Amino acid sequence: MRKTVHTFRRSSSARALPLVAGVLLLLLVGIVSVYLWYVRGLGIHPDLSAQSGMSWYLRAPMPQARTEVAVAALRGRIYVIGGFDGFARTTATVQIYDPQADAWSNGPPLPQPVHHAMAATLGERL
Q1: Nearest-angstrom CA–CA distance, 18 and 13
Q2: Beta-carbon contacts of residue 60 (< 8 Å; ≥ 6 apart)
Q3: What does the longest C-alpha to C-alpha distance in the chain come to?
Q4: How many angstroms separate the CA atoms of 111 and 106, rounded?
Q5: What does pTM read for this prediction?
Q6: Alpha carbons 107 and 126: distance in angstroms, whole number
Q7: pLDDT, tens digit, 9 for 90 and up, residues 31-44
Q8: DSSP for 56-104?
Q9: Burial class (CB in 10 A: 0-12, 13-18, 19+), 107
Q10: Cα angle at 44 between 41 and 47, to 5 degrees?
Q11: Which residue, 53, 59, 88, 116, has fewest beta-carbon neighbours within 10 Å?
Q12: Rama region for 111: left / alpha / beta (φ>0; ψ in -120 to 50; rest)
């Protein structure tokens, strides 16, 4: 009498499932890491004050943290225009920093949100 031994083989799709899950997990970790590093600003912050006698001073923080903004200086003030907010949404915000008063104020909003824009001054025009 012969005994029959049955072996069960996984289908190719069942064998690929752990690989697909691993790739998706790595992709998710990468997306979260990029968001935390790039958008939220949780990255390496080098100490530049030790280089060539430079000094940094803490001034009034921007009311709204943004990235990929356009910046220009006009009449002693710094204009920060558009960009992405902390949730990667494009903004139409214009904020103006006055170094003399160490204070921020809001400028008129842009007609539509922009990011990766450029700004320049010419004479007395922004």
Answers
A1: 10
A2: 97, 102, 103, 104
A3: 102
A4: 15
A5: 0.62
A6: 12
A7: 888 777 766 666 66
A8: ----PPPSS--BS-EEEEETTEEEEE--B-TTS-BB--EEEEETTTTEE
A9: middle
A10: 115
A11: 53
A12: alpha
C-beta of residue 79 within 8 angstroms of C-beta of residue 107: yes
Tokens 């003399």 map to which residue? 100
CA distances from 14 to 11, 17, 19, 91 (A): 5, 5, 10, 45
pLDDT at 88: 85
Tokens of 24: 């998706």
pLDDT-based confidence at residue 58 (cuts at 50, 70, 90): confident
d(Cα 26, Cα 18) in Å, to the nearest integer? 12
The token pair at 111 is: 């007609």
Beta bridge partners of 94: 81
78-117 confidence digits (pLDDT tens): 999 999 988 889 999 999 999 999 999 999 999 999 999 9
Q: At 108, list the tokens.
A: 């008129």
Structure tokens at 13: 């799709």
Strand partners, 105: 96
